[in-house]
Amino acid sequence: MKILIMTEEFAGNGHHKAAESLLKTMKKIDPRHEVKIVHLLKIINQTLEQWIQKIYLFIILKKPRIWGWIYKKEGNFSLLFKPFIAYAMLIKLDRYLKEENPDLIIATHASGLTVLAKLKKRYHYQLAAVFTDYHVNSFWIHPKIDYYFVGHEELKNQLVNKYQMKPERVIISGIPVDPSFSNVKPNFPHQEDANFRILVMGGGLGIGAIKEIVQSLQKIKNVPFTVCVVTGRNQKLYDELTQLAPSINYSLEVLPYIEDICSIMMKSHLIITKPGGLTISEALSTSTPILIYQPIPGQEEYNARFLIKNRSAIRIHDLNHLAYWVEYLYHHPRIYQKFIQHQKKISKPDSSYVIIENLLNRL
Question: How many CB atoms lie within 10 A of CB 41?
Fold first, then answer.
């Protein structure tokens, strides 16, 4: 078969990482199929893609409340803009699909789903939508989508009850993480460990109050700890933290964007992050307790609520409380292990395998 995995990168790296995880898994399960990752907006207009990313980053970094308001009104915006977006993409995407002639399209971003659903009848492919957050956004919804893959039972219930999707078309798979996350064992800290290892992240774009978190961790007392910060593709942050490291009163390792985040998480006892869908799914897969700070209003706010509802994370509203929670988790191993137990109930480390095996079986 010929399979296209449609995604985007303008809103961060998570959607693309999900696509890469599915491609890797397909190659492991059945390498005979031709699989390609496609960035939809690059097909339509690369300049438009660059401008959309600039606008998105400006809003979430400078005016996050505006993004939160837009996201809360997503149902209204969906009704208004979905037909317009589909019309704008139709001609170039039609031409592209005619050349590619795929048997299956998997979408890990909602931007082109409406037009992909409209063109299904013409090109006779199957269409699957793979959610990358723990919330149902109306932009993902179309009656002609064949299969939905969601992160948790709550999302399936929403699709079935609110959007009248047939239950057999909605599969609880988890958000697709790299196949290396399957069969990972929890890394329990022990008193004899030399260090309590803390991982600080801000997603692939390296955004959030990472520098402030690094400085705040200096308040920790009576805990032997080290910190690793992954700055993603934020070169400015990497340079700033590299220069700052010698003046910090603990051992600080600063890393740029890395592909093998699994190995880093496996060595970590705690992760401090904003709750991007992929990041928290990876943390859940490695049973790494999560401290959430400053979620982006919108999808990350819903992700944070999902984690807290399932007792799988602690949300920090004030960085003055950060050191307290690190100390508390270190000195209360029973509480620490309870977090891991709750995480195991909602983690889906085999998510990519579930998605690919389901699609191959159904096709």
Answer: 22
pLDDT tens profile 162-197: 999 999 999 999 999 999 998 776 555 554 456 899
232 class by beta-carbon count within 10 Å (0-12 exposed, 13-18 middle, 19+ buried): buried
DSSP code at position 58: H
The DSSP 8-state label assigned to residue 321 in this structure reads: G
- Of 311, 319, 314, nearest to 341 by C-alpha is 311
The label of the residue with tokens 């509203």 reads 317
Taking each helix axis from N to C terminus, what angle separates 46-62 and 64-72, rounded to the nearest 10 degrees?
110
One-character DSSP codes across 157-214: HHHHHTS---GGGEEE--S---GGGTTPPP----TT-S-EEEEEE-TTTT-SSHHHHH
What are the phi and psi torsion angles at 347 (to 5°)?
Answer: -75, 150
Given a cut of 80, whether residue 236 has pLDDT beyond it is yes
Q: Where are the beta strands (DSSP E) in the chain?
A: 2-7, 34-39, 104-107, 126-130, 147-150, 170-172, 196-201, 225-230, 251-255, 270-273, 290-293, 313-316
Pairing of the two strands 34-39 and 126-130: unpaired
Where do the domains of the chain lie, and which CATH numbers do they carry? 2-177+350-362 (3.40.50.2000), 181-346 (3.40.50.2000)
Q: pLDDT digits over 77-125, tens only? A: 554 555 666 666 788 889 999 999 999 999 999 888 888 998 999 999 9
CA distances for 94 relative to 51, 100, 116, 238, angstroms: 23, 10, 9, 41
**How many Cα atoms are found within 13 Å in the side-chain-facing hemisphere of 26?**
24
Q: Cβ atoms within 10 A of the Cβ of 37, count?
A: 16
Q: In whole angstroms, what is the distance from residue 353 CA to residue 363 CA?
A: 15
Report the b/e string of 328-359 with b at 16+ CB within 10 A: ebbeeeeebeebbebbeebbbbbbbbbbbbeb
